[in-house]
Amino acid sequence: MGNRRKPAPPSRARMAIVTTAAAGSAVLAGTGSAGAAPKPDLATVKAQVEDLNEQAEASVEKYNKFKETQQRLQKDAGELQDEVATAQDRMSGLRERLSAVAADQYRTGNVDPAVALMFSSDPDTYLKRASAQDIAASSQSDLLKLLLDQQRRLDQRRAEATAVLGQLDTTDRALAAEKKLVQTRLAEATRLLDGLSAAERAKVNAQDGRSSRTSARETYNGPATGRAAAAVQFAYAQLGKPYLWGGTGPNSFDCSGLTGGAWRAAGVSLPRVSQDQWNAGRHVAKADLQPGDLVFFYSDLHHVGIYIGGGKMIHAPRTGKNIEILAIEYMPYVGAVRP
After folding, report:
1. Catalytically annotated residue among 255, 313, 314, 326
2. What pLDDT, in 10s, does the model give residues 24-54?
3. Which end of the chain has fewer beta carbons closer than 10 Å to its terminal beta carbon, N or C?
4. Distant-in-sequence contacts of 259-262, Cβ < 8 A, 24+ apart
């Protein structure tokens, strides 16, 4: 697996929350009973949970990329293995034909030297060593050259299949490692939440207060037209559905799963992961954003949403939350793409 990007650092606002909360905890510790660890306040837990989920989401996009690569390699390996089997069948047929020629020549006492040489030793070794010039001198040159060519093709396909299977094994291990990393980070976030009361957990997992108050039944009535309108309309129809890492619908989505689904509904196929979606269209300036544009966040582009106008987007936020409308100013904006 390649070098992993470091997760994006917490925002200044989040660091301020953590620092302030930590200072408050220190004061409480000084006035409380000796040796008793203070319970983290809600702001601290919320900041930690958000950071863990942001790191998990970055790993989710890596996981999605590995999954996409795995599926491609599995397809390639299957096709190559089919080609190897077909080539082996052709080799068997050619050898049978050559055997018939050799038997006929043996009966007449006029065995071609090239044929005799081939059948007096390992056929594969002979074919690998025989030169085109040697074979050309044989009365059975066409058949022998065909067999030699087929052997070379078979060797090439075997080598390609072996290489692809090796890549697949590496990808499988990378996929498992990234999945474990996502699960570890989400488990830590869950552990922090479990230390809160039910009311506090509800506050942390509630839709962000910065997001617009929308109904899951809200429909799109915006200014976009054509394919962009279809993409935005699809995004509106998903409001209220849960975030699920690796999700591509129809009941749950992760961030790039939602944007991919939206544009697929508009007849446009986008790459699976956010980093690849960054290169799936024309880059547009923030001042020129239009509904339907893909908006990207964080330096490693691990989060993406669908712009809907008015400085807002529809996005799949994180585990524990639902698809929502959020102002783009509340996340570290990087840029936009128009598919």
Report:
1. 255
2. 444 334 444 445 556 677 888 888 988 998 8
3. N
4. 259/294, 259/304, 259/305, 259/306, 261/234, 262/231, 262/232, 262/234, 262/235, 262/238, 262/306
CA-CA distance, 258 to 45, in Å (whole number)? 28
54 within 8 A of 44, measured Cβ to Cβ: no
Stretch 198-212: mean pLDDT: 70
Distance CA 10, CA 49 (A): 11
Q: Respond yes or no: is residue 303 known to be catalytic.
A: yes
Would residue 255 show up in a list of annotated catalytic residues for this protein?
A: yes
Residues 6+ apart with CB under 8 A from 296: 274, 277, 278, 303, 304, 333, 334, 335, 336, 337
What is the reported pLDDT for 203?
84
Question: Of 37-51, 61-75, 118-132, 193-207, which has the strongest mean pLDDT?
Answer: 61-75
- The CA-atom distances, in angstroms, between 156 and each of 80, 87, 159 are 10, 11, 5
Catalytic residue, chosen from 315, 318, 322, 324, is 315
Please report the pLDDT score of residue 83 as a whole number: 84
Of the residues 303, 312, 318, 321, only one is catalytic, namely: 303
302 is catalytic: no
The answer to whether 165 and 77 have CB atoms below 8 angstroms apart is yes
Q: What is the pTM of this model?
A: 0.66
